[in-house]
Amino acid sequence: MSAADREKWDARYRSQGAESSEPSPFLTSLELAEGGRALDVAGGAGRNAIWLARRGLQVTLVDISREALALARGAAGALPVALVCADLETEPLPAGPFDLIISFNFLRRELFAAFPASLAPGGLLVYLQPTRSNLQRHPRPPAAFLLDDGELPGLVKGLEIVSYQEGWFSDGDQPRHQARLVARKVA
Fold this sequence. Notes:
Layout: H1 3-16, H2 25-29, E1 37-41, H3 47-54, E2 58-63, H4 66-76, E3 81-85, E4 98-104, H5 111-118, E5 119-130, H6 152-155, E6 160-169, E7 176-184
Parallel strand pairs: 1-2, 1-4, 2-3, 4-5
Antiparallel strand pairs: 5-7, 6-7
Helix pairs in contact: 1-4
């Protein structure tokens, strides 16, 4: 991302604050182990990271926006959430291994090659991203930030797919066409 992109996200969080303090219903619906290390990729103001930390995980939240990370810092309080300001288009993922990696609404196809090495044996990747079918009802995100329908399973290499769903899902707002995946690193 360019400096202009960073400023765009900083301005958005400065003006709107955290979008929601509630974690993703997809995330909360999963049976996840309590404890261990987790990475929240492009986690914004930390709604999912904070929920994971409350469940006993040591969470690293990485995002490009300093404003988002400031909101996450305030919301996390004394919870074990490490904040990393990084541009994941030019910088690597924070050092693992992690027992859980989550990435919601952030598309960088090149990261799929890094996910297996960043996971501990038995670790899970939980991924959610809108697909091009979302454009049937919503102009945003634009096509450049959408998966092709059916694309996600083919991006996952070196991990065992535990579950995959694609369709219209409502997470408290208007339904979005999303691809949702849980994959495990086999020891």
